[in-house]
Structures are given as C-alpha cells and as structure tokens.
Amino acid sequence: MKVFERSEYEEEELSCQKEEADDRLILHIAHGCENGIKAVLVYSPDSDVFVNLLYHFTESFNGLEYLYVKIGGNKRTKKTVPIHLLHSLVPDSLISVLPAVHALTGADTTSKIGAKTAVLKKSVDLEYIKSFGKAELSEDMIKSAEKFLLQLLGQSELNTFDELRVRQYFDNRKDLSLKTIVCCSMTLELHIKRAHLQANLWYNAADKASEFLNPLEHGYHTTDVGIIPQMVQKDTRPPDLREACSDGKCATKLCPCKTDYAGCLKFCKCRADPSVCRNPYTEHPSDDEDEASDNNDNDSSDSYDGY
Fold first, then answer.
1. Count of C-beta atoms within a 10 Å radius of residue 12
2. pLDDT value at residue 303
3. Any idea which of 39-48, 107-116, 140-149, 203-212 has the lowest mean pLDDT?
4. Which terminus has fewer CB within 10 Å in the chain: N or C?
C-alpha cells in the first residue's frame, strides 16, 4: 500500500507475505529507489530498523543518495542520524554480516549475549559468521557461531560455552549466580537457531518473493497460545554424575567418594588435586607420564618452525 497526502491505494509490487513492519519498511524503500527516489527519512527508535538500514543502504537501495533515520524516544534524546555517512565509516567486512551480529548478540526476538561494541573493540574473526543467516544452517555453522560469541566474551581460546561454564565455576565459585553464569551449549544452540531465522529474514527483507524458514526447525515450538521459544528438553546434568564431596583432603571415611570406592572429581572440594587429595581411588598422572609430557613439550618448542 502507498500513502500520499492522506490518499492511499494498493500497490501490487509491494504485495508480500512479510509480517514485520521492519521488513516491509526495507521493501518499501527498495521499491522507491527503483522508481527514482534519492532521499529517504525514516522515523524509528528501533535498533533492528537501524541495523537493517545500515546493511541494505548499498545492498538493496540502488541509486539512493541520502538516508536519514530519526532515533530517540523523547525531545532530549531524539536525533537524526545520516546512514549514508555512517555507512562509509563502518568496515565493509562488518557491514556484510551486520544482521547476523545483531541477531546473535540480541535483538527484539533473540536473547542478549555479550556486547555489540565488542565487535569493534576486540579481535573478532567475522569469518565465523560470513554465511550465518544466508546459507542453510548446519552443525558446522552452529559451532562457528558459538566460537564467534566466545570471542565476543573474550574467551577465544575456548570452543564451547560448556567449557566457559566450567571456567566460571572454578574462577568465581563464591560469587557465581544464575545472573552471571553463561548458558550451556545446548541452550545456546537453540538461541543460535532462532538468531539464524531472524538474520535470514533481515538479509532477505528487500526480496518480496523470498521463502520463509520454518520456525519449528529453528528453536521454536507450538503451544495453545501460539509459537514460542523452545526450552532445552534434555537433562543438563549427566545421569551418572555423583555429588561432589566437601572433604578438603579426603583423608577420612567421611569422604563419600572414598566410601563409594570412586575417585574424586574436579568439582569436589579437593579438585582431585594430587597435592591435596588423599583418596586412593582418584586417578592422578604418574611421574613417568608427567616426565613424558614435559619432554614432549620441550620437543615441541624446539621443533617449532613458525607455522
């Protein structure tokens, strides 16, 4: 539909199945550019709209010279941002994956993970998400997205959020809470699926004929009230995981691990540390294994050739 000075009429070229006004807005601007429009002013305080305008300025708005967006919720914060000038200041490598970055780090339909500004401040490899939201979602793409988010959190040496949870447990056990600990990898996978669905909608916002991905295959499920985000259905606690013992040295019969003829775990108070744990069933690396490991480390360092 087009609206001009209180008059309106149906425009067949703008007829589409897109539900969100954010996506329809992009389609309307692209259609206007095809008909010779050179300048556009958008009024929207929504960050989703801002990101999409920045991405589609050169991707879909052919011939558009000036693009402004009014942001802010009140007179004190309201301002007009020239997207056409801002676009030239942002690296092309970031512009090309901007919808994916926004969906993964938190948007109207996805959860917040990390800070968006970390993309600019930290050494982040955008190659991890170059196909995210554009190609069909695969296991490798999910793993790459998880690795990308770990980089945003400053944990580039880790591969999974499960590893980060373990690190947080040992580093901040006293102050750890559900508000500060990251989600597990199973939960993150559902988030990544929803982010992929959203990013795909944004990438194809200017294409009225684009096919929609199935939400039920991307982190959502149906209920009596409609489609809602899917929760983790599996038990995050392994069924054979024992309760951690609180005996600091495991020297007495009070140690439950010792009583069950089982070795202590890293989550026990002794942390299965050979210098502390006296549980005879706890497996520790032998002196020969330690020496062999040291020799291997020395050999590795001597033979390092820079590749």
1. 5
2. 33
3. 203-212
4. C
Give the span between the Cα atoms of 202 and 98, in whole angstroms: 10
- 226 and 116 in a single domain? The answer is yes
Quick one: 82 and 105 in the same domain?
no
Residue at which a domain ends, from 40, 55, 90: 90
Q: Beta strand 39-43 with 66-71: parallel, antiparallel or unpaired?
A: parallel
Number of folded domains in the chain? 3
Give the integer Cα–Cα distance in Å for 189 and 218.
9
Residue 140 host element (H or E) = helix 139-152
Domain termination site, one of 212, 232, 252: 232
H or E segment to which residue 190 belongs: helix 185-203
Q: Contact 113/105 with Cβ under 8 angstroms?
A: yes
Among residues 286, 271, 284, 276, the alpha carbon closest in space to that of 251 is found at: 276
Q: pLDDT tens for residues 207-261?
A: 887 888 999 999 999 999 889 999 887 776 777 777 777 777 787 777 888 888 8
- Which pTM was predicted? 0.79
